[in-house]
Specification:
Blueprint (H helix, E strand, L loop, with lengths): L2 H17 L4 H13 L1 H23 L3 H9 L1 H21 L7 H20 L3 H12 L9 H30 L4 H26 L1
Amino acid sequence: MNMDAVTVLKGIVVGFSIAAPVGPIGVLCIRNTLAGGRLYGLASGMGAATADAIYGSIAGFGLTALSNLLVHQRGLLGVAGGVFLCYLGIRTLMSAPSEKKEKEMKKSLWGTYASTFFLTLVNPMTILSFAAVFAGLGVAGQEGSLLPAALLVSGVFIGSSLWWLTLSGAVGFLRDRINSRWLRGVNIFSGLIILSFGLAALGGFV
């Protein structure tokens, strides 16, 4: 195996490992999969994977000024993320299972992607994880390291996407066994968890 392939493989492992811990994005992915199917769960995950790739790029290509700006503004970003999580939690609590028309489903699909993209992007501490990992692998914006950094970022996106594909696929198998009454319970449970994440985020910055 050549060095480029090894670098991509390292990125896949990093992306998968960073995405795997269950947090508010994981809860959203599970809930959206149960409510709308695998495609909605995957859309949730791909929003997070895209944001991971952006933060990975900032760390990997040594964009120090932008990285420092994001870290210095982590309080404001944390409040924005906390407020949005509270909104999503309340909306999930109040939502009821329903059939959607095709056009509504397409709009909702894009909204699902955008919401998790935003939530992941307003967590600037993620960039510290990528910066530490990339520095440890010796590709953190050093001279002549643009190709390794690009390969590593590509691997991160692939690894993160693989996790969300796995999670949405696994949860999707349970969807056929859940009726509307159970789904209502899932909405309540998920909404409470997401709301608690939002309140915890606000408590840490307000």
